[in-house]
Design brief:
The chain has 4 helices and 5 strands. With 132 residues, it is an alpha+beta fold. It has one domain: Alpha-Beta Plaits, CATH 3.30.70. The protein is globular. Bound molecules: flavin mononucleotide.
Length: 132
């Protein structure tokens, strides 16, 4: 079975001034429940100012999630870094793996998704450097 693999970066939205670690636990709990339902696995890197997320799963489910993500006011400036059909998932075991933004999280992404490529990966690295 072919899976769709998609990665993006985005900025934390602070317009309502209420971003808090508790908000992230609520977000992750909902996302986990939905991802189990939709057959999606995900790797979310979260920092003080932004997110990097890889999502993988059946194409229709991944595109539906991406639509929801694009209209989610909790983040903004969402930039698609990578989209591909793959035969195997890079992170097959976890519906929502959350990591704090640091070099370990980035190197796990780099190893798992070489298709991000140097150009895209340097963008991701630059974005993520501002996350910690
Ligand atoms: C950084 C970030 C990552 C998210 N990741 C997921 C996810 O992996 N799965 C998911 O269903 N929702 C995720 N969401 C939430 C979605 O944007 C959306 O609010 C949610 O899917 C709506 O679910 P509901 O219809 O059950 O309320 C994420 C939101 C943000 C801001």
């Amino acid at each position: 079975m072919a899976f769709c693999q998609l990665a993006y970066v985005s900025d934390v939205s602070r317009s309502n001034g209420c971003y808090h670690p508790d908000d992230l636990s609520h977000l992750v709990a909902c996302a986990k429940r939905n991802n189990v339902r939709d057959g999606i696995t995900s790797f979310l890197v979260a920092g003080n100012s932004g997110f990097v997320q890889l999502i993988e799963g059946p194409r229709v489910a991944v595109m539906s999630l991406f639509d929801r993500l694009e209209s989610d006011p909790r983040h903004s400036n969402l930039v698609l870094l990578h989209k591909a059909d793959v035969s195997l998932r890079a992170f097959p075991d976890n519906p929502m793996c959350l990591m704090q933004a640091d070099s370990e999280a980035l190197s796990r992404l780099e190893c798992a998704v070489p298709a991000l490529g140097q150009g895209l990966y340097s963008k991701l690295t630059a974005e993520a450097a501002g996350l910690a």
